[in-house]
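Quick one: structure tokens for this chain, please?
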Amino acid sequence: MLVGTVGIVVPVLPGLLLVWVATLVWALERQDGPGWLVLAISTLLYAVGVVAQYLVPGRRMKTAGVDGVIVAVALAVAVVGFFVVPVVGGPIGFVLTIYVLERVKHRAHAPAWHATTQALRAVALNIGIELVTAFAMIATWGLGVYATRP
């Protein structure tokens, strides 16, 4: 669970998924009602978190006028950038791509910079949603461990 939580902040691993998998492994090890209940609650939290991390930041960027195609291209560049310049290449590629494409679209610095800052806020919101979801799943697991201790 700790590795998954770190994977949320340092996007090397699928963090939220790792937290859920750790809960699954725990439930499979227990093979009892409380374990399955904790897994069910964690699965529900995971599903809500995944949906929220795509809907909320996306809606916010759309409201700010950031085009979805530009975000998709920026995400693709971020993935390539992550492998070209490990760890920092992803975020730098994402931000630069948003700025450059918005600059070309608007032909001015101010609207391009506004779109870029909105994209950065959306990324921060996405990370925040993932962290809150992971903490809720970990808290659920912790309560399950505490409630079923011998």
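Residues 2-147 form one domain.
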